[in-house]
Each structure stands twice: as structure tokens, then as C-alpha cells.
Amino acid sequence: MNEEFDVLIVGAGPAGSFAAERLALGGARVALFDGRPEGEPKACGGGVTAKALKAWPHLLDAVGRTVRELELYSPSGQRLHLKLDEPFAIYSRIAFDSYLRDRAQAAGAEVVSQKISARAISRTANGWSVQDASGATWSTKFLVAADGANSGIAKKLAGPLAAADMEVAFGYRAPLPEKAEAPTVVAFLPRWVGYAWAFPRLDHISFGIATTQEDFDHKALDELMWQFMVGYYQQRENIKAKMWSNVDTDAARAIEKNLRATAERYAARIPGLADKTWDKRRASGENWALLGDAAGFADPVTGEGIYYALRSAELFAAAFLEERPEEYEARWRKDFGGELRRASQMRRRFYGNFWGAPFTERMIEFARGHRGIKKVLGDLVAGEQGYVDLKRKLARKVLRPI
Ligand SMILES: Cc1cc2nc3c(=O)[nH]c(=O)nc-3n(C[C@H](O)[C@H](O)[C@H](O)COP(=O)(O)OP(=O)(O)OC[C@H]3O[C@@H](n4cnc5c(N)ncnc54)[C@H](O)[C@@H]3O)c2cc1C
């Protein structure tokens, strides 16, 4: 073989598949590689914000669940029920990723189930030569790395990221409660940066905690995760459990025992670039570009990365098809780079104090008694409210009558 491709993309997650689809539809010859074993899901909550669903309404055709109500908990366990004006969606990543990959293939991209090692990539006079795990060699003019948060290709092309540029998320996939509805929950952690979630999907619940890699203490956070999960099922069984403290009865212990026998653990990293890294780090160079997590594009406050994976794919594909791939760098910076950089600056403050208590505690406390603040929170969940003016907006609402 030695077929020449215009673009070879490593990684068929949301970023790689969406870029492949756009490029192929625009007439480029595209090869899309992924080494994930069939049926193995990418560790992810699978939450896709209203902002993303509005930008790409076809995502609603992927099999998932639409979420119209959300339970939010403060670090002390105060509860806030939010009815969302703009629903978001929760997908199983197997369903979401195959949906996007099938669209790329239907658009004309050649999809190859092979892993590509960074060591097997070398420059040629016309671009790149790439050897896949089976030993076959592929030639391409342009190389795109969309191989996720642990991207070996990004490390080779743009350099490694420090621990301070990473977040960690871990959790469990567990069965849906048998007798009760399964609410969607986000709970801000007591004493830690980050939050826990319960995202029910069609056939299971994804539980997880996202926090910073620097502060990660596995034992303490795993205990917190179990308190959260057991509390969640106890509440479904009408046991009066609080969010961060379980009830100790026979029925409660049976719930935990059952959960320990069925829950499957997962863990993975999410990029959460530090403020200064945004200025230094490049996501493109001569005949190469990085997309999505491989480029570090996730919200450092929430760990949300699917929107940025899709948006970076869209921006790159447009620049490439206009024969100006070098403009991708300036375009992502202008489009969402500033917003993510500001989110990095806000991370400590978001999880810091505000009027004598954790900001997240105050936010939920105020929202419980104030429609305007509830609305701001709804917009935050929808992906429509930035962090920069969040505190100012909340403070203004608090001081203003309902
Ligand atoms: C636990 C957890 C929960 C999360 N929850 C959410 C959430 O609810 N909402 C949200 O928006 N974001 C969430 N994120 C972040 C989100 O998962 C990522 O931002 C998003 O998946 C990035 O998409 P991507 O296409 O860039 O990379 P990925 O989705 O990671 O896709 C990369 C692809 O590359 C493939 N690959 C990797 N290496 C190679 C190789 N060497 N050769 C070939 N193929 C390779 C992988 O198999 C994978 O399919 C979460 C992350 C974690 C870890």
C-alpha cells in the first residue's frame, strides 16, 4: 500500500470523528484511526450541554437521555431542585462515539481500527509517514492528533503537560435503582475542589468525582464517592439519608453490599490547563494540529470537554478546507481559548470562599430563596453563563429584590 491521504486523524472520539466528517464532506481524503477495543467505553459522564445541542442539533439523533431537571447539592448537603429551561443530554459514550464515527464513515472517511503509536510517526518530504499497530504504513500530508487526554502524539509535537495542567475523574458504573426514578445529581464536594455527579443513562448510572490532579488523595475521595453513592440509593429507598453521611441500618448496609458487588470502577484524566499554560501551549504547527482533549481543551472548572472537542474539530476542518490550516491556532484562541483561560483563573475562586463560606455553598443557599439566582445557575448548567461575571451577577441579584 501507500495511499496518500490529505489528513490522517488519530483518535475517533468526538473530536476526531467530527473533524473527519467535516473534512470528508468538504472533499478531503481522510483516514481516521482508533485503537479502542470494541465495546470498551471512554470514561466519561457523557453530559452534553444545551449550548452544544443548540450548536449541533443532530447530536439529539444519537441515543441518549434528555435531562430537564437537576438536583444540585452544596458542600454541606443543602439541596436545590432546578427545572432547566434548556435541557441537556446524557449519552453512553459507546453510543455517542459510534454515532459520530458512523457519520464520519458515511461522509467518506476511511475508518481504521488500529492504534497509532507516537513513535511510529515520522516526517517525510510531503508530510508524514505513519505505521499502524499491524505494521501497515500510511502517508498523509497533514496529521491530526485527537487521541485524548493522554495523547502521546501531543507530547511529541507540543511537549508534555505538568500535573498542574490535569484533573482527575474517577467513579463507578452502577445499576439503576429498581423501584424508583433516578434523578440527575451534581453535588459540590465538602473540603475539596470539584464535584460529584450521578448521571443516569438508559441502562446504568454513571457516578463520578472530578477534582484536581495535584490535590488528588485517592483513599479520602473514594470514601466520599461511596458516601455519595450509598446516600443516593438510600434516598431512593426512602431512607432519610443526607448527601454526605449515610444511615447505618440493616437496610442501608444491604444497599452498600449490593452496590459493592455490582459497581464497576473507572478512572481517567481530564485536561485542566493552568492559566499560564494557555499562553505558551500551541495546538498546531507545520502540517499538524491537536484537537479536543489532546490539545488540552476542557473547562478547568467543570471538566466539560465534549463541546470543546466538537468545536475545535469544526474550527480546524473549516480552516483546512479553506486551505488556511495555519489559521486554526488563532481561530480557537479567539473562539473559546480566552474563555477557557479565564475559567482557569476562576477555578480556585469558584471553589474558594464568598461571604464567609464556600462560594458553591453560598450559590446554592441564595438560589434556594431567589428566582433570579436560580436562573443564573440554570444558565451555568446550560453552558450559557461564563464564570467571569458569575460572582458579580450573583452578588447583584442578592442585593436586588426577587
Ligand atoms: C470521568 C470523566 C467524566 C467526564 N464527563 C464529562 C461530561 O459529562 N461532559 C463533558 O463534556 N465532558 C466530560 N469529560 C471530558 C470528556 O470525556 C472529554 O473532554 C472528551 O471525551 C474529549 O473528546 P476527544 O475526542 O478529544 O477525546 P476522547 O474522547 O478521549 O477520544 C480519544 C480517542 O482516541 C483513541 N486513541 C487514544 N490513543 C490512541 C492511539 N494511540 N491510537 C489510536 N487511537 C487512540 C481513544 O480510543 C479514543 O476513542 C469527562 C472526562 C472524564 C475522564
Any overview of this molecule?
The protein has 402 residues and is an alpha/beta fold. Helices cover 37% and strands 26% of the residues. The protein has three domains: 4-64 and 91-163 and 271-348, FAD/NAD(P)-binding domain (3-Layer(bba) Sandwich); 165-269; 352-399, no CATH class. It has helices at residues 14-25, 50-55, 93-106, 152-158, 218-236, 250-262, 277-280, 292-295, 306-321, 328-350, 359-368, 371-382, 390-399; strands spanning 4-10, 30-33, 47-48, 64-73, 79-91, 110-112, 116-123, 128-132, 137-145, 166-174, 185-188, 195-200, 205-212, 264-271, 284-285, 288-290, 353-354, 357-358. The strands form three sheets. Strands 1, 2, 6, 7, 8, 9, 15 and 16 form an eight-stranded mixed beta sheet that branches. The protein is globular, with a radius of gyration of 22 Å. The chain starts with a strand and ends with a helix. The model has no long low-confidence stretch (mean pLDDT 91). Residues 10-16, 33-36, 42-47, 115-116, 146-148, 169, 208, 268, 270, 292-294, 298, 303-307, 309 line the site of flavin-adenine dinucleotide. Flavin-adenine dinucleotide (FAD) is lined by residues 10-16, 33-36, 42-47, 115-116, 146-148, 169, 208, 268, 270, 292-294, 298, 303-307, 309.
Briefly summarize what is shown.
This protein is an alpha/beta fold. The chain folds into three domains: 4-64 and 91-163 and 271-348, FAD/NAD(P)-binding domain, CATH 3.50.50.60; 165-269; 352-399, no CATH class.
